[in-house]
Amino acid sequence: MAAPGPGEYFSVGSHVSCLTCLGQRLQGEVVAFDYQSKMLTLKCASSSGKPNLNDVILINLAYVSEVDIINDRTETPPPLASLNVSKLANRARTEKEDKLSQAYAISAGVSVEGQQLFQTIHKTIKDCKWQEKNIIVMDDVVISPPYQVENCKGKEGSALSHVRKIVEKHFRDVESQKSMPRTQAQQTQKDSTLSS
Q1: Which of 104, 128, 143, 190 has the smallest number of Cβ neighbours within 10 A?
Q2: Are strands 54-60 and 39-45 parallel, antiparallel or unpaired?
Q3: Element (H or E) spanning 98, and its range?
Q4: Residue in 144, 140, 147 with CA at minimum distance from that of residue 162
Q5: Closest to 12 measured CA to CA, from 58, 99, 71
């Protein structure tokens, strides 16, 4: 069945299997179905392999050659989980700020190495920002170009020491990736991206 005919639909909670026109088999639980646009939303096992996560896939049934209903749900579906709107709004705001920060760094002419270092620090310490071409961490540490350990300035203490360690490790990791064969470095980068 390529797409549901008139009056046909998929019940929320049913399990279906779809074969795309590219030969990809997708299987999961129906989360939503819009008859007019022929869009099906499936909840599938996580591609990351983490058991407590799921992938949500939107499928345009115009590009599906076959749909099999594995298990049709006839009872009323459970109520939808409530969304924490304030948490979502905060997450959207944070992501927007991060993207604006990246755009600022590019427009300010910050080197690629400086941008990469900023991203590395930001993964560990969220309280970091750009001030012209300088990286400001926790309002205590300033890292100026060329962004090496000796360019970390601030009041001696645990914050400065911690930032210096992050900078050292960042450049060690960059050097070790340069010395690896290209395909191995790409695989390591792919693995670290998947684990983030």
Answers
A1: 190
A2: antiparallel
A3: helix 85-107
A4: 140
A5: 71
The answer to whether residues 173 and 183 touch, using CB atoms and an 8 Å cutoff, is no
For 57, other C-beta atoms within 10 Å of its C-beta total 16
- Reported as type and span, the H/E element at residue 174 is helix 158-179
Structure tokens given for 65: 């050659």
CB 115 within 8 A of CB 135: no
Tens of pLDDT along the chain (196 residues) come to 444 554 467 888 899 999 998 899 999 999 999 989 999 999 998 888 888 889 999 999 999 999 999 988 878 777 777 888 999 999 999 889 888 888 888 888 899 999 999 999 999 998 999 998 999 999 999 999 999 999 999 988 899 999 999 999 999 999 888 877 655 555 555 555 454 4
178: its two tokens: 């340069």
Look up residue 123 and give its amino acid: K
Nearest Cα residue to 62 out of 35, 91, 84: 35
Distance (Å, whole) CA 132 – CA 34: 48
